[in-house]
Design a protein that fits this description.
It is a single chain. This protein is mostly helical. Helices cover 71% and strands 4% of the residues. A two-stranded antiparallel sheet has the order 1-2. β1 and β2 form a beta hairpin. It starts with 13 loop residues before the first helix and ends with a helix. The model has no long low-confidence stretch (mean pLDDT 83).
């Protein structure tokens, strides 16, 4: 599995032309507004907003689907039991098995917000080179430690995925059949994970030592101070932030 969030950063679209610093501020505000939503009638609105944003970015649908796959499985595994245990209104019963309305609505709310937030994140990080995003975060005075951790984590995941692909290919050449579920395969997979952890630990030590030798931590990195005079970026940021604030105000008013 390859992460490569910025593999479509070369495309030309309205979102790609949006200046990255103002894009980060505006889309982060939209993400907070999505996380703030608790009313079910607002779900279609955030779905439509997300769909419009993704369509404007011109990112391929396959890019979204592949990045949603593993986090989606995780979130489904976390909330699958909610309809069985949350709430009192039974809408379906078969013997001891009861499906409750409140649990179903909670699952709908959680999954919708999760998909929309993850999609907006993919638009944010997928429409500009990752290094540009890192420089933009620094120019927005985000903590240097946080930004460096993001950069190193991203690089680390790429290396881990590359190593995993190489090891899986080597195992297949030696006759390993990944589609079989038995004790031997589980033992092999356990050894694979252990080997990956040891290799990644050794590699992280080498990277840290290389960074220290190159002076990491001894020189202050100055953020880039540039004024944004792009009219497209200004309009896009204003519209996006207005929508985010409107969603939060609507949510507060409905809650009373």
């Amino acid at each position: 599995m390859k992460l490569i969030l910025d593999q479509h950063a070369h495309l030309d679209s309205l979102i790609h032309r949006w200046e990255q610093r103002s894009k980060i501020v505006a889309l982060f505000g939209l993400i907070i507004a999505f996380a703030f939503v608790n009313q079910l009638f607002l779900l279609p609105i955030i779905i439509v907003l997300t769909a419009i944003l993704y369509a404007l970015s011109r990112l391929p649908l396959s890019f979204l689907l592949t990045r949603l796959r593993y986090p989606g499985l995780f979130i489904v595994a976390m909330v699958v039991a909610l309809p069985l245990v949350a709430g009192e209104t039974v809408i379906f019963q078969l013997g001891w098995l009861s499906i409750r309305q409140e649990g179903c609505l909670a699952v709908l709310l959680i999954i919708t917000r999760f998909v929309c937030i993850l999609t907006v994140n993919l638009v944010l990080f997928g429409t500009a080179p990752f290094l540009t995003t890192i420089q933009s975060l620094r120019s927005l005075y985000v903590s240097t430690i946080i930004v460096d951790m993001m950069l190193l984590s991203y690089r680390y995941l790429e290396e881990l995925a590359e190593t995993l692909t190489t090891m899986q290919r080597a195992m297949q050449l030696r006759g390993f059949q990944a589609n079989r579920f038995d004790k031997r395969n589980l033992s092999v997979l356990a050894r694979l994970m252990g080997s990956l952890l040891i290799r990644s630990y050794d590699q992280s030590k080498l990277v840290y030592q290389a960074m220290i030798l190159r002076g990491y931590g001894y020189s202050k990195i100055m953020p880039i101070n540039q004024k944004n005079s792009d009219i497209i970026s200004r309009v896009a940021s204003t519209v996006t932030l207005s929508i985010a604030v409107s969603l939060m105000i609507l949510e507060i008013k409905v809650n009373g």
